[in-house]
Each structure stands twice: as structure tokens, then as C-alpha cells.
Amino acid sequence: MAAIRLVAHSPAEPGWRDRLKVHLLGLGPDSRVNRFFAWVSDAQVERYAATAAPEIVIDALEDGAVIGVAEVYRRPDMAGAAEIALSVDEGHRHAGIGQALVDRALDEGRRRGFADLFFFFRKSNRAMQRIADHAGMEPVASGDPGIAEVHARLRGQVDRLALVAPGRVIAL
Ligand SMILES: CC(C)(COP(=O)(O)OP(=O)(O)OC[C@H]1O[C@@H](n2cnc3c(N)ncnc32)[C@H](O)[C@@H]1OP(=O)(O)O)[C@@H](O)C(=O)NCCC(=O)NCCS
Predict the structure, then answer these.
(1) Domain range for residue 84?
(2) Residue 153 is part of a domain; what is its CATH number?
(3) What residue owns the CA closest to ligand 1's atom 39?
(4) pLDDT value for 168
(5) Whole-angstrom Cα distance, residue 152 to residue 148?
(6) Separation between Cα atoms, residue 7 and residue 57, nearest integer Å
(7) How far is residue 150's CA from residue 120's CA, in Å, rounded to a whole number?
(8) What are phi and psi of 77, to 5 degrees?
(9) Model pLDDT for residues 22-63, shown as the tens digit of each residue
(10) Is residue 66 part of a domain?
């Protein structure tokens, strides 16, 4: 198998929208529902790839093809907050690519000054729950019984090791 590279860039990267389109069109029905929270047709996927406006993109690339992507969107409803959308090609699952993309998205979000990062996923999406748990993200009430929302604080993080000093809190 060719080496897989993670590359962070803006959506203005030449050719990216076409590579994103090919990747998203390759997602089967269940994956599309997990990714978009509803069934989406090929035409809708194509429109999405042509118009998506994430602030940061992290591609997992193999031989120049996008085999996974984390799109980081600024949240219009919350200052300094961003939201991640994630997808990995069905032929490349269970290889740690989704986790690596989220870990890199958290790093990039922190580096670019976001204070909070969220993602949403269907409660039946066990892979996303594992990824959120491994990334140390905490649950938030999404308000939708079928949708999980998780959150990571990127700025002003509490130092958890300091909190467990014997018998007292030594840093907040
Ligand atoms: C969610 C998704 C990105 C995971 O990608 P991936 O590259 O297979 O994930 P990883 O290989 O990093 O696996 C992460 C964890 O999930 C687990 N996992 C992966 N697929 C799983 C599945 N179908 N059921 C249960 N656990 C699963 C892995 O074992 C791993 O956990 P572990 O480290 O404790 O063993 C991929 O399934 C996908 O693209 N789904 C469709 C789109 C989507 O759901 N997007 C999320 C909402 S925007």
C-alpha cells in the first residue's frame, strides 16, 4: 500500500474540489447518511463539493487521491468555535485514518486560534464515538435524540494532571 499523508490546506487549493467530489461520491448509502445526516443524491454531493466553505481542510492522501478528509467549519452561532465533518473511503476504514484526521484537526484548530471544537454524529455511529473518546472529547446535549454532540476546549484547557495533586487543586 502506498504511504498515506495528511495535508492541511484551505479550500482554495487547486483541484481540491474535484478530489473531494470523487471521494464523497465513493461513499455508499450508509456512509452518506452518517456523513450528511440524511440521504444525499450524487447531484447533491456534487453541489456540496463545489460549494463547501470549510475554514481548514485536512486531506488524507494516497497517490494524490483524497482517501479521507476532515473539514473544519467556523460555527456562525458561537465566537471562536469550529465544527469538524469527517469521512474516510470505505476501502481504507479501520486503519486509524479517521482518528489521525481528527487529531490533526484538533491541532490545526488550536494553532489557528479556535477556542472550542465540536463534532456531531449519529448515536449509532460507533466509530465516531470511539474517535471522540480517544480524542478526549466530552459529550454535550445536542437537543436531538438521534444525534451525539461532543466538544473539546482548545484554549484555556484545564491541566488535568495538576488537578489530581494529592488532596488539593493546584491549578485551574
Ligand atoms: C467514522 C469514520 C470517519 C471512521 O473512519 P476510520 O478511518 O475507519 O476510523 P479509525 O480507523 O480511525 O477507527 C477509529 C475507531 O473506531 C473504531 N471503528 C471503526 N469503524 C468501526 C465500526 N464500524 N464499528 C465500531 N467501531 C469502529 C476503530 O476500531 C477505532 O477504535 P479503536 O482504536 O478503539 O479500535 C468512517 O467510518 C466514515 O467515513 N464514516 C462515514 C462518515 C461519517 O460517519 N462521518 C461522521 C459524521 S460527520
Answers:
(1) 4-163
(2) 3.40.630.30
(3) 87
(4) 39
(5) 14
(6) 8
(7) 7
(8) -95, 0
(9) 999 999 999 999 999 999 999 999 999 999 999 999 999 999
(10) yes
For residue 4, give the amino acid letter.
I
The answer to whether residue 111 sits within a structural domain is yes
Q: pLDDT tens, 139-171?
A: 999 889 999 999 999 986 544 443 343 433 333
The residue contributing the CA closest to ligand 1 atom 32 is 130
The answer to whether residue 171 is domain-embedded is no
Atom of ligand 1 nearest to the CA of 99: 12
Report long-range pairs for 166-172 (Cβ below 8 Å, ≥24 apart): none
This prediction's pTM: 0.90
Which DSSP letter does residue 141 get? Answer: -
Ranges of beta strands (E only) in 10-165 are 56-62, 65-74, 81-88, 116-122, 138-140, 147-153
Domain count, the chain: 1
Task: Kindly give the distance from the C-alpha atom of residue 142 to the centroid of ligand 1, in angstroms, as a whole number.
Answer: 20
Place of cell 454532540: 149
| The pLDDT value given to residue 18 | 96
- The answer to whether the CB of 129 is under 6 A from ligand 1 is no
